[in-house]
Prior knowledge:
By secondary structure, the protein is mostly helical.
Amino acid sequence: MDTQSGRAATNxxxxxxxxxLRLTRRGRLVVSGLAALGIVASxxxxxxxxxxxxxxxxxxxxxxxxxxxxxxxHAQDVxxxxxxxxxxxxxxxxxxxxxxxxxxxxxxxxxxxxLD
Length: 116
């Protein structure tokens, strides 16, 4: 092997000779951008929620609470198809955003007109 061809081979390997892939600054930016785009796209796909079997809307009537009335009193007035009275009270509390069953006279309350 002569000296010049040996030097040429050494210089070629230092420069990333045959079989070595080198990216320019622009190439590195493109690869980084594509990787970031893939990450963002996977976040959107993973965060997508699918609604299944939404509950039908409940028709309500507004009632004004008289002194001495309770949620149980109004739950008994809701026509149901064999639903437990406790479940009806829970529904009324949920519709009205109540944390307790305590009512005040004069308070406005949304009560379902009918439950299935």
